Amino acid sequence: MSDQHAPAPVLIVEDSNGVRSLTFNRPESLNAFNQALWGASAEALEEAAGDDSVRCVLLTGAGRAFSAGQDLAEMSDPSTFDGQVPGYQRFMPVLETFPKPIVAAVNGLGVGIGLTMLLHCDIVVIADTARLKVPFISLGVTTEASASLLMPQVMGWQRAAEVLFTEPWIDAEQAVADGLALRSVPHDDLLDAAWSVAGRIGALPLGPVLATKRLLLAGRADAVRDARLREIAEFEDLVGALLEG
């Protein structure tokens, strides 16, 4: 008999016709990333990378958010990372080098990593009700997930600067105009639209899929890694200054 009181998994993993869907499942926290979700997501991507039955990964969120970013309550607890690698530092190298196409279905709120991880997805479909934001500077920190490199490449320098320095909410229509998403669809049609794209990839032969993704990543892999490491150094300096203050 199953334990009816067992906690729900922080990540729901499902397979269908060559597609592995990963659903961030902390809806009560707007799918904010804590150590458990970072770790589960990194592990699930690693498993998908090594599974020849998987051609494509689909990312989405449960409830009304894609992800509200880092779990700030957990981050403020000094004991959180005792003896552990911060989950972000485990997750990002896996995401940025993932060898198969990633389709994102942005179902709702995307803040912080809920926006910046989209820069590492190959195709993004966004619900017309979704909104995105990167409140890094107002929180006393700076960019993450190699956004300092990728946002200007995707959005153009001036638009990226506007988004980073003034921190506006970005609606679905603007996200498409900014290059953060391929298309916007009605909320109720989101998963069908995203699965349609992912399913077409899932039906393709594995070898050419891997080769094409490898070629797409090759030109930027070192620059993306180096940008992430620079951001971590700046982040740690800024957080140290906040703690000292």
What secondary-structure arrangement, pairings included, does this model have?
Elements: E1 11-16, E2 19-24, H1 35-50, E3 56-61, E4 65-67, H2 72-75, H3 87-96, E5 102-106, E6 109-111, H4 113-116, E7 123-127, E8 131-133, H5 147-155, H6 157-166, E9 170-171, H7 172-177, E10 183-185, H8 190-202, H9 206-218, H10 221-244
Parallel strand pairs: 2-3, 3-5, 4-6, 5-7, 6-8, 7-10
Antiparallel strand pairs: 1-2, 8-9
Helix pairs in contact: 1-3, 5-6, 5-10
> If you compute it from the alpha carbons, what radius of gyration comes out, rounded to the nearest whole angstrom?
18 Å
Q: Could you name the CATH topology? A: 2-enoyl-CoA Hydratase, Chain A, domain 1
Count of helical regions: 10
Largest sheet: 6 strands, mixed
Please tell me the CATH architecture by its name: Alpha-Beta Complex
Q: In words, what does this structure look like?
A:
With 245 residues, the protein is of the alpha/beta class. Helix content is 44%, strand content 17%. It has a 6-stranded mixed beta sheet with strand order 1-2-3-5-7-10, sandwiched between helices. Helix 5 (147-155) crosses helix 6. The protein starts with 10 loop residues before the first strand and ends with a helix.
